[in-house]
Design goal:
80% of the residues lie in helices and 0% in strands. It is built from 17 helices and no strands. The model has no long low-confidence stretch (mean pLDDT 85).
């Protein structure tokens, strides 16, 4: 039989429950309404990290999908948001949903309420929801947005999975070489300096490299920091962003995958916005903003100019086969001719996803043996540089 709860233990229990209640209440946060004055120091730190945290694509997709399901079931929009607030583990998203619900109670539309959070809901999502609200098909648009977000999240997961092995090998090799150069090789130098043995080139190269690293590590650190700062300012300048985006597209293998990912983003956004009923001019403006690449953004605005002149989107895009493959522009042309651009856009996305999967499969198939070969060469070099003079010293001693 369990012993009765003593008064002291009951007091501790009440204190813990009180703290949990306060933490739960602090999550009931509405931006622009909840008073931050008087909140404790640690609560303010917690608020800072929550307010500056992001929301993953899968969390957003889950939010849009559940919201669409509830609305389709007949649950009012604001009631659906109140329920959804309890279903998410993201504290940031929970606060955003609370704020959306509060704004709806004050007469705002969902799209207008989302405008307060451009870091969470991008321009494409807000524009699609605004158009869907106007024509009364909100739940259908929420499902389509969720589908696109799930597709993007799944694609990112596959890319990350493909890069885990090579990055792990490179990281492990870098750590191993660093330990050798900083801790092991300097001791070898002390050993070899006591003998008159003529060292092979590999050993001399290793000793010199280790001396440079151990004596001038601070210089390497300064150069690294300076290069990082310079690169940051370069890519955030207009010319630098253009040049960097162009160079990324030309990278071997990676550039090809990146171009296909951007085209998937292009057609997904195009299809969703067209099906939402948004005018084509506004659609292309949102598509341009959502490409995430300056080259594709400018090309999309070029297509917008062509549309304003009465030409087809596919006609303008077909002039840049490096950016938009012929198969893509041909399918877009069919969609324009048959007025099924939204449906065709999804098919293009599926087609390009399969191509990316094939490219990743071939890439990892080739990269695996190359990495093994590279590691083998490095191991052989270190073995030659370290063991060869030690073997010579042993023979001389005998």
């Amino acid at each position: 039989m369990n012993p009765p709860i003593t008064e002291k233990r009951q007091g501790k229990l009440d204190l813990l429950l009180s703290r949990l209640q306060k933490e739960s209440a602090s999550d009931e946060f509405i931006y622009g309404v909840t008073n931050r004055v008087g909140r404790g120091f640690f609560t303010k730190i917690r608020d800072f990290f929550i307010d500056n945290s992001g929301v993953s694509g899968k969390e957003k997709a889950y939010f849009f999908e559940l919201l669409g399901t509830m609305i389709k079931s007949g649950i009012p929009l604001n009631r659906s948001l109140k329920i959804l607030k309890t279903k998410t583990d993201s504290l940031r998203l929970r606060r955003v949903i609370s704020t959306l619900s509060n704004d709806l109670e004050h007469g705002y539309k969902l799209s207008a309420a989302m405008d307060r959070f451009p870091d969470i809901f991008d321009q494409t999502e807000r524009g699609a929801i605004m158009s869907a609200e106007a024509v009364g098909h909100l739940e259908g648009m929420l499902f389509k947005i969720a589908e696109n977000l799930y597709r993007r999240a799944d694609l990112v997961s596959r890319l990350q999975a493909a890069l885990v092995y090579p990055l792990a090998v490179i990281f492990s090799l870098t750590v191993a070489i660093s330990v050798m150069m900083i801790f092991v090789v300097p001791r070898m130098e002390e050993l070899f300096s006591q003998s008159s043995l003529a060292l092979p080139f590999a050993t001399r190269f290793l000793l010199k490299s280790s001396a440079v690293i151990t004596n001038f590590w601070w210089l390497f650190l300064i150069v690294l920091i300076f290069s990082g700062i310079t690169f940051h300012f370069y890519v955030n300048s207009e010319d630098g962003r253009f040049g960097w985006d162009f160079r990324k597209l030309r990278l071997p293998v990676i550039g090809k995958i990146l171009r296909k990912i951007i085209v998937i983003r292009f057609v997904d956004t195009l299809g969703v916005l067209i099906e939402s009923g948004l005018p084509i001019n506004k659609t292309l403006e949102y598509v341009a903003a959502g490409t995430g690449n300056e080259i594709y953004r400018l090309k999309t605005f070029e297509a917008l100019g062509a549309v304003q002149e009465g030409r087809k989107i596919s006609e303008s895009l077909s002039l840049s086969p490096f950016l938009f493959p012929e198969a893509v522009t041909n399918m877009l042309a069919v969609g324009e001719q048959t007025a099924t651009l939204g449906d065709i856009s999804r098919k293009i996305g599926n087609y390009l996803e399969k191509e990316i999967d094939n490219t990743l499969k071939n890439f990892t198939t080739v990269l695996g043996p190359l990495l093994i070969l590279f590691v083998g060469v490095m191991v052989a070099f270190f073995a030659l540089a370290v063991l060869s003079p030690i073997f010579s010293l042993t023979q001389a001693a005998v």
